[in-house]
Amino acid sequence: MLAACLPEYSRSRLQKWVKQGSVTLDDTGCRPRDTVLQNQTIRIEVDDKAVRAGRGVEPQDIPLNVVYEDTDLIALNKPAGLVVHPAAGNPDGTLQNALLFHYPELARVPRSGIVHRLDRDTTGLMVIARTPQSHTDLIRQLQARQIEREYEAIVNGVMVAGGRVEARIGRHPVNRKRMAVVTGGREAVTHYRVLEKFHAHTHIQLQLESGRTHQIRVHMAHIHYPVTGDPVYGGRKKIPAGATPTLKRLLQEFTRQALHACKLTLLHPADKKQTGWQVPAPTDMRNLLQELRK
Fold first, then answer.
1. Could you point out which of 1, 3, 180, 197 has its C-alpha 20 to 30 Å from the C-alpha of 203?
2. What is the average pLDDT across 6-13?
3. Coil vs helix vs strand at 81
4. Is the pTM of this model over 0.85?
């Protein structure tokens, strides 16, 4: 009954509310399998964490690069330096602040419509849900691995060929601000293929089966091909022998991970048709690739 009356919420969330005692039937506690009779009253009182996550976030007039939008979702190209949502050290100036300014209706959507995230200095495509129904559907697709995310990166070292990294990821045992490949971590799989080889770097394309925090950055460092410029996992900068002065400067000044979410494909929440977008790498990555080719 609840699922029919509230299609914008997933069955798992509704069942959780019932088990928590947040749902009553004629002012009496109920169970997930209870039958609702005619003229009975269902009452729901919840303090949902996902909805609460958007409260207290002030709208801010921060420009957004919107690639596509309709009544159900928004696809945008996130620039480097933009944090996705407020957290310790970043109380405002985030993507969430910007979304609430440009789309005030997102205050009624869990997490202001944010379905997934990109690291602060990773650029590229993100999808935002504009309704609770779309948010529930996109979260379901993400969990079912039906959303395809494709990235491109420049890594240190010359790869022989593409491959697959399957290594569990969890918090670093010593530095809790970092992630690491650890035995008890969460399952994580990354596929990669070579696009271009240079003297000391490789331009690669990557696809994720899972979406763990810092997954690509951790996996590439784990196989000894860290993402160029990565301040956390990148190690020492690699300057190839015979590099031009311009290339040396670009590599020295590249202080973010050279990682870009270039393609995103999903089933549209409204008609279930496959929908996707593709955006080119930002200027700093394109300039670095151009100089590496020389």
1. 180
2. 62
3. coil
4. no
